[in-house]
Amino acid sequence: RALWYNLISLYNTPDLTRLAKEILSKYDCYVGMRSSDEAVQCKKEGLFDHIVWVDADERIGKESSSSNSIQRLPGMHLIQNNGSLETFKKQARFIGDNLFK
Question: How many whole angstroms separate alpha carbon 22 and alpha carbon 40?
Fold first, then answer.
């Protein structure tokens, strides 16, 4: 994970939005961004209509900062993934039904 994180960081230097722009040129969704600097810049440039934060820290613990510097930003929609699969599915459906019409 740390290797991928570092490779993506190098790829996105000096343009922090490079990978996001390439993904969004082909797809409607970018899943798995791992850098707060990249997220902030993408938000600043208006690349995303919505950002969804899926939190499972209570269930699996925080990931090492060597492979993930992402932090929850104001305005991100939250899905808790610390309980049952059914609860997670309900929250994901709610977000999908209400944001991505």
Answer: 17
- As a dihedral over the C-alpha atoms of residue 37, residue 41, residue 44, residue 49, rounded to 10 degrees, the angle is -100
Q: Is 82 helix (H, G, I), strand (E, B) or coil?
A: coil
Which tens digits make up the pLDDT trace of 75-91? 899 999 999 999 999 99
The answer to whether 97 touches 73, Cβ cutoff 8 Å, is no
Closest-CA residue to 55 (of 79, 87, 73, 39): 79
pLDDT of residue 73: 86
Determine the Cα–Cα distance for residues 46 and 69; give it in Å rounded to an integer.
21
pLDDT in tens, 32-71: 999 999 999 999 999 998 999 999 999 998 888 899 998 8
Give the residue among 46, 45, 44, 63 at the shortest CA–CA distance from 54.
63
